[in-house]
Amino acid sequence: MKRRTWLAVGSVVLGGSVVATVAVATTSDTSDEQARSERMRPVAAYTETFQGGDPGKRSVPRKDTRPFSMLGVSWEDPEAELDGTAQIRTRSAQSGQWTRWQDLDLGIRPPETDEGQDSGVRGASEPLWVGESDGVEARVLAEGGESAELPGGLRLVMIDPGVLGEDIGKGWRKVGDMNGGGNSQEPSQQPTTEPTPEPSQGESSTEPSPSASATEEPEPSQEPSQQPTTEAPTGEPSPEPSTDPTGEPSTEPTGEPTGEPTPEPSTEPTGEPSPEPSTDPTPTGEPTPEPSTEPTGEPSADPSTEPTGEPSTTAPAPSPSEPQTPRIVSRAQWGADESLVEDPPSYMSRVDAVFVHHTAGTNSYTCTQSASIIRGILTYHVKTNGWNDVGYNFFVDKCGTIFEGRAGGVDKAVRGAHTYGFNGNSAGVSLLGNYEDGGRPTQAALDAIARISGWKLGLYGADPAGKVTLTAAADTGVWKNGERATLYRISGHRDGYATLCPGADLYSQLPAIRTRAAASSS
C-alpha cells in the first residue's frame, strides 16, 4: 500500500484549527457559470486538537467554526481502544441553537486486510451527521475517570460535505427507486405485517411487502410522516439512479470537476420528489420458511469459505445467469471525489454473504440530504480513518434509494471495509440512520436492502435465505481468528463483530429481509 500523504489545494490555520479543502474546478468562463461557481462550496475536512492536562480527560471548548455537517473523534494508534465516552454538542447554522450532548459510537475497527495496515490509518469513532452547523464543543472522558488514560493524538474532526454542481443532482426529482417498484407513495415508517413463516427464537415475523407494479402512476413522495425533522435540509438534490450501474468507476484521481455549480441551499424543507417507475420485477411465489437463528447449525449444501489470500485487482466474472440489476445511484451521481481514492480496488473471488449495517447518528435527515451524508462518510473514512475508500459496498436511505458505495463496479466482488474479520468474502450494505435507540426502518428501506442483497448474492448463485460457513480472519469479540462461523448469508454486523450495529430494530427485520431477498432473486 502507498504511504498516505494528504496534499490539500489550500490549507488555512483558523483559530487553532487546520482546514483542508478538496477543490472543485470549473473550466467555463461564462458569467452564469462564474456566478454559480461563487455559490459552490467544496468538500472540506478540518480538525481541532483536544486540550487538558489530565490523562483521562480532554476537551475542545465551545467555539465558532467554519460550516460542517458531520464530525467524529480520532486518535493516533488504530489498534488502541478508547475506553470511555466521547461526547459532542453543536450549534445549528440555521437557528443558532445548541444541541444537547450526544455520544459518539466508539465501536469501529480498521479492516483486518492490508488496507488496515497503511501508515496513515488512525483509530476513530463512527462519524455523526449533525446537519449544517457553525459551532462545536466536545469532551472525552476515560472509563475510570481522570486517573485513567486516553489514547494519544486525540483530534476532533469536522466534515463539510459541500455544495456541489447542478450536474450532480440532475434527475434527483425523478428517482425511480423510492420504494422499490415505481410506487412512489410515502414509505411507511412502520413495516407491514403480512403473514410470514413462523420465526424461530423470537425473530420478528414482520415481512416487507413486495413493491407495487412498475406500471402504477407515481404520486408525489414526501418524507416519512412519523420521522421528526430537526435539521434544515441542505437543499441539495438527490441524484437519479443510473440506468447502467454496472460500469466500473475509475480508481485514478481525476482532478476534474464533479458538476456544475449550484446556488446556496434554501433553508425551507421541501417535499420528496416524484419518482419515475422502476423496472424492478415484482417478486412472485410464496416466501420460503425462515431458517433457524442458531449460528452453529450446519449450512445447507453451502460450501465452506476459507479466508482468501492476497486480493486481486482483476474482478472475477459473476455467474452466467444474473438476476436483474436494481436501480443504483452511481458514485458520480452522488458526487464522490475520486481523487481521494489512491489505490485500485481489491477484488475477491466471490461474495458469499451480505452484512447489514446502520450508519448510526440521526434519523431526522431528509432524503435530499442522503448524497451529502454519503459524501461526508467517504471523506471521513479516507481522511480520518485513513482507509483507501468508503468502507461499505452500498448505502440505502429511508426513501429506499440504493447508492453505490466503494468503487470497483457494483456487479463485481469488491473487497470492502465494513465487518472486521469477515471482509474477505462479503459485501456490506448500510442503512442511513440509527436503529438501536427506537428508530424504525421504513418499509421502503427494508425492501431496498432485500433487493440489493438478493441481487448481489444472486450474481454468485447463493441463496439469500440460506447459510454459509465463513472463517474469521481476526478476533472479533464474537469469533476467534481462524474459527469457522456458520452464518446466514444475509446477517447483521453484530453476527460477525461485537457491536450493536445494525441496531435492534433493523436486526429484528432480517428474517423478513431474507425472505424478500430470496423472492426477488428467484
Automatic annotation (TrEMBL):
Occurrences of domain N-acetylmuramoyl-L-alanine amidase (ranges): 339-503
BP GO annotations: peptidoglycan catabolic process
Keyword Metal-binding tagged: no
Domain (Peptidoglycan recognition protein family): residue spans on this chain: 326-475
Similarity remark: Belongs to the N-acetylmuramoyl-L-alanine amidase 2 family.
PANTHER family in the cross-refs: PEPTIDOGLYCAN RECOGNITION PROTEIN, PEPTIDOGLYCAN-RECOGNITION PROTEIN LC-RELATED
Protein name per UniProt: N-acetylmuramoyl-L-alanine amidase
